[in-house]
Amino acid sequence: MRGLSHRLHRFDVKQMPYVLIAPFFILFAIFGLFPLIFNGVVALRTWRLDDPAQDGWAGLANFERLLTDEDFWNALYNTFGIFVLSTVPQLFLALCVAFLLNRRLRGQTWFRVSMLLPYITPLTASTLVFLVVFGRDTGVANWVLSVVGMDDPIDWRAGKLQSWVAIATMVNWKWIGYNALLYLSAMQTIPRDIYEASALDGATSWKQLWRITVPMILPVVIFTVVLSTIGGLQLFTEPMLLDSNPASASGGSNGEWQTIAQLIYKVGWKNLNLGYAAAMSWALFLIIVIVAVVNTLLTNRLGGGKR
Amino acid sequence: MTTTTDTRSATPPGADPDQAPPRRKVKPSLSGRAPQDTPAGKWTYLLLGLTFLLSIYPIYWMFVIATSTDAALAEIPPKFLPGGEFMKNLDEVFSLQDVYFAESLVNSVIVSTVTTVSVLFFCSVAGYAFAKLRFRGSRILMVMVILTLTVPNQLGIVALYILMGYMPGEGGWNGSLLAVIVPGLVSAFGVFYMRQFILGAVPDELIESGRVDGATTMRIYWSIVLPAIRPALAVLGLLTFVSSWNDFQWPLITLGGTDYPTSMVALFDLASGNYVLYRRVLAGAFVATVPLIILLFVGGRQIVRGIMEGAVKS
């Protein structure tokens, strides 16, 4: 009896921690890590959904095809265009909003919570709203433009630039408040005496913003740059639903705004060519890593140069 | 902060100390006050009010169209006040044959609830182990958790789909809620967040005294750790529920075209037919949004805290 309880106790001390962390590692290995690796294998095969018999090794054929695939390059171009139009204003405006929130405010909590309304709204729901807002004939966007004097209604789905702007607007709307809270939380950890000392040196509040606040929150800025790179290059819901026939996944009649994530969906589940879709996913993965690293270095340099 | 002098008394009534244009060449800022201790001026309130209006307008407009007839969409200037057709529109959404809207809401509740409860349990026990228990390899395993935070899971989506096809059961898991629920049962962010919170919220002495009394590891979890981490559970639970409810791409791939959609997939179907009526689409969208707006009302404070704490710690 004594031996058993002793052994139970040993188990509780020695093995129990592993039991507690096991569910995370097991589930992550199966549904997170394995698909990422297995994706590399699928990319080297001719894996078709409609014809399992065709399954065989393709070598690098899928990747070779990628290099000359106009759809892929078009989607890459669109993805980057939308990415630039959405990330740069988004982070800049988030910084402005955070700056506004970083005061002693009446109704402080209320303001902060209300900034999260777009974040909490389901992306599908808000995209469907914007779909109507960006209608050509009766959309609110064109009405606003006509009020400020642009009488020619814009057909938001007719060209690359318009459709990119429409999509970027949706992305910006959703994420500005969220990023503002991230910046705000970093701003509030800046030691107060730094401001006091710089005020003694006669710094204006504008100078303080650029010489103290921004450099001090640089790590969080880099964090948001990386986050929005990862998110922005995988943009899927907005381009899918902007289409008048969303199920086609074509991103406009001539692919004006088709993104890579959308093309992967189309190739994999509309054209049923999973092998090729997997190759595209790998390409996208590489691109995201490269862009995230470049953006981090750039932000670091820009932010550091200010000091 | 204690050394600062109050500028308010030196400012004429009605003038705004920060926003007034500098008269002198160099305006000493805020007389040493940090921005967060400086009262906001009227421009700050005005701009924040504008931001708020821009944030809420699309949601409000969704409601306006959801409560109107088809004619409302064509109004110029855009219709501003809601109409009285909400129940009629909603009724049409629920009775559409291929959309399964009512079922989809139930499915979304099931998926989000199961995911949330599971994430809370598995992540809090793992966070407890990492924060308070000593075991070999704990440091390197924690580094692995943090590394997995940076992996964009969506990129393995093709392989995940194939994997689901091989899961036990007839035809695998694709097309069943299991395919959406099971991969979401744990989250790296959750483990990380819980570990950070438990490190600060549960004193080592409390755990030691539990040990001395002969309590097992799980006993200590239930009676000492769990009561201490309630605030963190609220934060993580809300964030998990929201992201699970709003998940779209993977549910579309695995549940699209079945009679078991989540509400996000059902909305996609609602907007995809040959005969799309936006008052219906937005009535559906509004119904799928309301639960989250209620959550924001009830738990907004916690959600804000979760996001802001997550930023500082990572």
Alpha carbon gap, first and last residue of chain B: 28 Å
- Run of helices and strands of chain A: HHHHHHHHHHHHHHH
Greatest interface and its participating residue counts:
A-B, 113 and 114 residues
CATH superfamily of the largest domain in chain A: MetI-like
Question: What name goes with the CATH superfamily of the largest domain in chain B?
Answer: MetI-like
The number of helical runs of chain B is 13
* Helix and strand pattern of chain B: HHHHHHHHHHHHH
- How many domain units of chain A? 2
CATH topology of the largest domain in chain A: MetI-like fold
Q: Name the quaternary structure.
A: heterodimer
Contiguous low-pLDDT stretches of chain A (5 residues minimum) are none
Overall CATH class of the largest domain in chain A: Mainly Alpha
Q: Explain this structure to me?
A:
- The complex is a heterodimer of chains A (307) and B (314).
- Chain A folds into two domains: 2-43; 70-305, MetI-like (MetI-like fold, Orthogonal Bundle), CATH 1.10.3720.10.
- Chain A is 73% helix and 0% strand.
- Chain A has helices at 2-14, 16-43, 61-68, 70-101, 108-114, 117-120, 123-133, 140-147, 160-187, 192-200, 205-216, 218-232, 237-242, 260-270, 274-305.
- Chain A starts with a helix and ends with a helix.
- Chain B is mainly α and 314 residues long.
- Chain B is 62% helix and 0% strand.
- Chain B starts with 41 loop residues before the first helix and ends with a helix.
- The model of chain B is unreliable at 1-30 (pLDDT under 50).
- Classes of the chains: A mainly alpha (307), B mainly alpha (314).
- At the A-B interface, helix 1, helix 2, helix 4, helix 5 and helix 6 of A face helix 1, helix 3, helix 4, helix 5 and helix 10 of B.
What's the quick description here?
By secondary structure, chain A is an all-alpha fold. In chain A, 73% of the residues lie in helices and 0% in strands.
Keyword list:
heterodimer; A: 307 residues; mainly alpha; MetI-like fold; 15 helices; 0% strand; globular; B: 314 residues; 62% helix; disordered N terminus
